[in-house]
Amino acid sequence: AQRVTQPEKLLSVFKGAPVELKCNYSYSGSPELFWYVQYSRQRLQLLLRHISRESIKGFTADLNKGETSFHLKKPFAQEEDSAMYYCALSKSGGSNYKLTFGKGTLLTVNP
Amino acid sequence: GAVVSQHPSWVICKSGTSVKIECRSLDFQATTMFWYRQFPKQSLMLMATSNEGSKATYEQGVEKDKFLINHASLTLSTLTVTSAHPEDSSFYICSGGVRGEQYFGPGTRLTVT
User: Fold this and answer.
1) Which of A18, A23, B30, B96 has a 20 to 30 A CA-CA distance from B4?
2) Chain B within 8 Å of A91 (Cβ-Cβ)?
């Protein structure tokens, strides 16, 4: 069974501080990993995916297959980063495979 | 990016009635759409996979007779909550995939009184 674990329900940092949102997964196969973000009163949107290996809004995430982790990092948090962040995985190979979400981490960036 | 819409954005219904929620892909065709349920301050729980032209695939524990899904065209999937009860009150979200990415609708807030 596939599973995504986000150990921190809440994370609070000060503006300018580094932030790391943890994500671990279990999957018997080759998964595709994603980070989704949900700002207040907005729909869920893709932040980044491991296969693109790009940085979005200063966030990066590296897939570590040995540790089965896909932690999200940003060196200097901004107040506008405050949102709910979800780690998710699916079977690799296309957009018609279902996503399994973690429980989410609510990030608050304080001024 | 692609756009997914949902209608209505919120609905209040009486216990025992049925409610239909529409999910449309506005600028792409989706052979597969997904329906999720989200409780307050909680994660999304996948309810079912909607397949165009065929039966939906439901996740374990989701009552298929209670949550009827119809995917009659490549741009429209509907979720009907039948004989709704207060415990069905929730936020329902759909998504559709294109170019390797899932796009989410804004959600529908269902309140059953």
Assistant:
1) A23
2) no
- Chain A residues touching B101 at Cβ < 8 A: 46, 49, 95
Best residue in B44, B54, B92, B109 to probe A by mutation, most A CBs within 10 Å? B44
The model's pLDDT over A2-12, given as tens digits with 9 standing for 90+, comes to 899 999 999 99
The pLDDT tens digits of the residues spanning B9-57 come to: 999 999 999 999 999 999 999 889 999 999 887 889 999 999 888 899 9
C-alpha dist (Å) from residue A110 to A60, A65, A71, A76: 21, 33, 21, 12
A99 close to B (CB below 8 A):
yes
Chain B's closest residue to A91, CA to CA, is B100
* CB contact set of B7 (below 8 Å; sequence gap of 6+): B21, B22, B24, B108
Interface contacts (A, B; CB < 8 Å): 46
**pLDDT by 10-residue block (mean), chain A, 111 residues:** 92 97 92 92 90 84 92 97 95 78 96 95
